[in-house]
Write a structure and sequence with these properties.
Blueprint: E1 3-7, E2 12-17, H1 22-31, E3 38-44, H2 48-60, E4 63-65, E5 79-84, E6 92-93, H3 95-98, H4 108-115, E7 117-121, H5 134-142, E8 146-150, E9 153-157, E10 166-168, H6 174-185, E11 190-194, H7 200-211, E12 215-217, E13 223-227, E14 235-238, H8 243-256, E15 258-263, H9 271-279, E16 283-287, E17 290-295, E18 304-306, H10 318-325, E19 331-335, H11 345-351, E20 355-359, E21 362-366, E22 371-372, E23 375-377, H12 381-392, E24 394-395, E25 397-401, H13 404-409, H14 413-418, E26 423-427
Parallel strand pairs: 2-15, 3-14, 6-7, 10-11, 18-19, 22-24, 23-25
Antiparallel strand pairs: 1-25, 1-26, 3-5, 4-5, 7-9, 8-9, 11-13, 12-13, 15-17, 16-17, 19-21, 20-21
Helix pairs in contact: 1-2, 1-7, 4-6, 5-6, 6-7, 8-10, 8-12, 10-12
The chain binds uridine-diphosphate-N-acetylglucosamine.
Length: 429
């Protein structure tokens, strides 16, 4: 298994191109199931999760075509996928596939909407705690699907198609909102989604669905109205930049020091994280082609942060911020309100010398002057990258094991950081 080796203490200077967002790419690929025409997606990141979803969609009969290299292409450019679900041959998503990637459960909605039935394995638990799908099921029930749980599978039927309805989420859920949107797009009648997630990836999927002929308004607000249409067509859509990748590299620069342009990043996608970085002592400036982040000389100030649904501080940046605060000049508090048990990185950061105590959903981080390199490993994607951030500012060598977590969500991480001066390499085998 690959490992990443980092020797800390180098500043970061240069440019990091920001890839297309993983969390938009996955539902966009899944939306291809809603039409028998081809959906073309540009700016798709090269990630293990994207490759896995290609396989999962292939099992339903979807063809994914990736054009070969063109003159002038850079390995850091996004890829283009031509996705065609002309004939869906199988409406079952088996446990072996769904258990590898939770978001693949979302095929449930377009399969029922287009085919009138779906049989999708329940995903099971995951490293960041229990992650139920009750609200996704509720959304489709409100659109008229009949749902049963049989042998670990959710079986949904809507033989006469889905019907528009009202979906009021008791809790903000990204997956629930994607499910509601995809189901309602092909339902008969109008659907109103209340307390919808406002994450930018929801807006991106809604934009693409509208290009495909859907009638969605209000995406990006907490009330979305969808007028169902009888069929959707093909379209071409470019994936929006990854705000979590942006925030992660911004924190890496704040941690290591230096001056980096995050090329293609859009500040409005992560304003709350940029505000926290400014409080922490980094200089953050929007430019015409991205966001510049710098920290020269000044120390890191402690902060108080609580994760929240968008536009609040993203749970997917919580571990990275904790790594940064481990070297702050004082005590910080970070409260995690979205996922229980999303603190698996705490013990690994402690191996590098961080002083963190947990009390329920709040972590207290006592900043230390020095971190020291060590072998570490992590159990999820964002936790793994928090260890990379800590390692950039630790004395000596850190080895991050189980790199496959990083490859799920960060494209060419060692390449992007290495080009800015980090001493980082992948050790294969
Ligand atoms: C998505 C993101 C993930 C991010 C999360 C929160 C993708 C592929 N993943 O995950 O990176 O961390 O949003 O921003 O886009 N919940 C229920 N019942 C449900 C569904 C969710 O109780 O049926 C709860 C969850 O346990 C959690 C909260 O709702 O406490 C938010 O989860 P949700 O927004 O649904 O997360 P995901 O869509 O799985």
């Amino acid at each position: 298994m690959d490992r990443i080796r980092i020797v800390g203490g180098r500043k970061l200077n240069g440019t990091i191109p920001i890839s297309g967002a993983k969390n938009a790419t996955l539902p966009l690929m899944i939306a291809s199931l809603l039409t028998d025409e081809t959906l073309v997606l540009d700016n798709v990141p090269r990630l293990a999760d994207v490759a896995l979803l290609q396989r999962i969609l292939g099992n339903h009969g979807v063809d994914v075509m990736v054009p070969g290299k063109r003159p002038g292409d850079s390995p850091l450019d996004g890829q283009t996928l031509h996705i065609s679900a002309k004939r869906i041959v199988d409406t079952t998503a088996p446990y072996e596939l769904v258990s590898k990637m939770r978001a693949s459960f979302w095929v449930f909605a377009p399969l029922v909407a287009r085919m009138g039935e779906a049989r999708v394995s329940l995903p099971g638990g995951c490293a960041i705690g229990t992650r139920p799908v009750d609200l996704l099921i509720m959304a489709l029930e409100n659109l008229g699907a009949e749902i049963e749980i049989e042998g670990g599978y959710v079986v949904a039927r809507a033989k006469k198609g889905l019907k528009g309805g009202e979906i009021r989420f008791p809790k903000v859920t990204v997956g629930g909102t994607h499910t509601a949107l995809m189901g309602a797009a092909l339902a008969n009648g109008t659907t109103v989604i209340e307390n919808a997630a406002r994450e930018p990836e929801i807006g991106d999927v809604a934009d693409c669905l509208n290009k495909m002929g859907a009638k969605i308004s209000g995406a990006g607000t907490s009330r979305i109205v969808v007028e169902g249409v009888a069929r959707l067509n093909g379209a071409r859509h470019s994936v929006l930049p990854d705000r979590i990748e942006t925030g992660t590299y911004a924190m890496a620069v704040a941690m290591a020091g230096g001056d980096v342009l995050l090329e293609g990043a859009r500040p409005e996608l992560l304003q709350s994280a940029l505000d926290v970085l400014t409080q922490a002592g980094a200089t953050v400036a929007a430019t015409n082609n991205g966001i510049r982040v710098a920290r020269n000389g000044a120390g890191i100030n402690p902060v108080e942060v609580t994760t929240a649904p968008f536009p609040g501080f993203a749970t997917d940046l919580q571990a990275q911020l904790m790594a940064l605060m481990s070297k702050a000049k004082g005590t910080s508090h970070i409260t995690e309100t979205i996922f229980e048990n999303r603190f698996m990185h705490v013990q690994e950061l402690a191996r590098l010398g961080a002083r963190i105590t947990l009390n329920g959903e709040t972590a207290t981080i006592h900043g230390v002057d020095r971190l020291r390199g060590a072998p570490v490993m992590a159990t999820d994607l964002r936790a793994s990258v928090s260890l990379v951030i800590a390692a950039l500012a630790a004395d000596g060598e850190t080895t991050v094991n189980r790199v496959y977590h990083l490859d799920r969500g960060f494209e060419r991480l060692e390449d992007k950081l290495g080009r800015c001066g980090a001493a980082i390499e992948r050790v294969t085998g």
